[in-house]
Amino acid sequence: MLAAVLLATIALPITLTGASVALPRIGADLDADLAAVQWVVNGYNATFASFMLAAGSLADVLGRRRVFATGMAIFTVGGLASAFAGDIVLLDALRALAGIGAAAGATGASALLAQTFHGRARARAFGLFGVALGVGLAFGPSIAGALIELFGWRAVFVAPAVVGAVVLLLVPLLPSGRGEQTGRLDWAGAATFTGALLLVIFAFVQGPDFGWGHPLILAAFVAAVALLGLFVRVERRHPAPMFDLALLASPRFRGVCLAAAIIVMVLVPLLVYLPSYFTTVLGMSAGGAGATLILLTAPTLVLPLVTGMITRRGVSPYAVVVVSVAVVAAGVAWLTTIGPDSTAATLAAPLLTVGTGVGISIGLLDALAVGSVDPARAGIASGMVNTARVAGETVAIAVVGSVLATTTAGRLADPGFTGGLHAVLWTMAGAAALCAISAASLTRSRPVPVSASVG
């Protein structure tokens, strides 16, 4: 079970970082504009985030193994099909399909770990989970750069799909099991949440192209707000909601969700847009851009195990989370020194600082989330924290993309790229600093008992 989960955890971030490095080649090969190319990343992330909560509920009802296996099958098929896409619309659609599978696979993986391991074994298992995620993040950009230069951009979708196929071979060996949740699934909640998130992403991605005052963009924002309000109402009334508002009664759980969201809201947009800056402004090759990003992602490879050792020696895991967010804020502020004359050597310190902040929290946040609730609700807890994480990163990618598209007139090149990137980085640094303060306040609060029943 652990081998299957870790392999899946490695594959999921590689398909994101690989697509990010490949965006310039995809746009040139398929003759697509910036907005259409952005959906290669945003489509995957949007469905990943949208279906995370539904996948958590399904895992508690239908069984963690079944949801995990189904998700990995969809992810694998979507990845292989993406490699053969002949136009940008089909590629975007297939990436959205792969995101649905990734949501089920990721949620099922966390729930399987929580179901199988307990006590110190759970801490070690989630430490390895963090390392696996770190491997995917650390080597994803460089692997993608090498694959693109050797075989073309289509190879970045084939490689994770092959890993997914290996995982599927291990499925018969996985333990079955389900939570205590029974009754009908929350389809209304899934529909309203998915609709709201997709409308927000659509508005931010297409806003620079259509114009921010365009009736369609304004209508998308208004409809998203209305659907979000309807989602909250549905969740309060549903007997088995996929977003259990009772879990939010715990300040510590809210703090974990906040920290998880802000960390990826910084990390993932950097992984998506720094490769374009490196290649178009700094003149790096795709392989060189991927190699430089290792400075950002390498700490995620080793620090999760170090964090596990520290927390087992008595250091508060919540204090570690707060420190991690503060370090991310400091690193992003330092990264504002980036400019057309920057080199990998001058960027090393700020990139390593951001990566250190990310690395010490990977795995730990998932363990704190699923460990703070009744085991029967592990699937929903995992789905909620991952939804906070992936929804945050998806919106952040769209917002950052819209800013950069506006400042560069849709070209992602100077003039305009450096100034827009600086504005984005300072905003990220301020947001992370505020979140570090908020997380410190929330996680110092006494834990509020959360039962398996719906409040």
Which helices and strands appear, and what pairs or packs with what?
Layout: H1 2-30, H2 34-50, H3 52-62, H4 64-82, H5 88-116, H6 120-151, H7 155-170, H8 187-210, H9 215-237, H10 251-280, H11 286-297, H12 299-312, H13 317-335, H14 344-359, H15 364-371, H16 378-407, H17 417-444
Helix pairs in contact: 1-2, 1-5, 1-6, 1-7, 1-10, 2-5, 2-8, 2-16, 3-4, 3-5, 3-16, 4-5, 4-7, 5-16, 6-11, 6-12, 8-9, 8-16, 10-11, 10-13, 10-16, 10-17, 11-14, 12-14, 13-14, 13-17, 15-16, 16-17
* End-to-end gap: 33 Å
* Anisotropy-based shape: globular
Helix content: over 70%
Oligomeric status: single chain
Low-confidence stretches: 448-455
Number of helices: 17
Q: Can you give a write-up of this model?
A:
The C terminus is likely disordered. The chain has 17 helices and no strands. The protein is mostly helical.
Short description:
By secondary structure, the chain is mainly α.
Looking at this protein, list some descriptive labels.
mainly alpha; disordered C terminus; 455 residues; 17 helices; globular
